[in-house]
Amino acid sequence: MDRQQVASHRGGNDGDAAEWKQVAELRAVAEAQDPACKEEDELTLRRFLRARDHNVGKASAMLLKYLKWKPAAKPNGFIAEEEVANELAQDKLYLQGLDKLGRPIIYAFPARHDPKKRDLDELKRYVTYVLDKTVSRLPEGQEKFVAVVDLKGWGYSNCDIRAYLAALEIMQNYYPERLARVLLIHVPYVFMAAWKIIYPFIDDNTKKKFVFVSDKELDKTLREAIDETQLAEMYGGKMKLVSAAERG
Length: 248
Description:
- By secondary structure, this protein is an alpha/beta fold.
- The chain is built from eleven helices and five strands; from the N terminus they run H-H-H-H-H-E-E-H-E-H-E-H-H-E-H-H.
- A five-stranded mixed β-sheet has the order 1-2-3-4-5, with helices on one face.
- Helix 6 links the parallel strand 2 and strand 3.
- It starts with a helix and ends with a helix.
């Protein structure tokens, strides 16, 4: 790839020369240990670099772990719907709409999760499936997504720490710098007990992205971030959330 192609691939002047030099260093280190790195683009490497605060050594360790995980988690290159049928049937997540910055939205409803019915391996596949689907919805020039997590009705019967930590691990370790912000809404007091367990496992860069929204500030917060055409009907918007069954 010549300089002009690289510049185009990087999205013009996004990023400074020093950072792209570190990306090149990261590629050289990683490719020397795993040739599969050649298949990853410049922006992917930059996300790993940023996730480790531009420390090439730490970023390469993270990237190599990802390169080992990828073929094991997605032996066919992707997760098929039939591999996550049980999870899809629960309609816990809706991948619809864009916020005002053009970032794809995930609407999540954790109260629909039943720990007694979940298989941890399938759940891990489901998380990977959702993240890949969300990444595929990214407009050109955008690398991140947002989530609206509605905890209305959530109780101890829905609490699944193992599942939460598994999802967090996949997102943080294998999809770094993809998450822009999570709005936690309708948060019941009992959820804070689970949050205290989860919180130490969230890396410092990610912790800042979780925002607890009070009921009083809910409408204002959602409308500031999301146009009404992209906001779910249940929050006063005009977007109908379509379930997996309705999509056929």
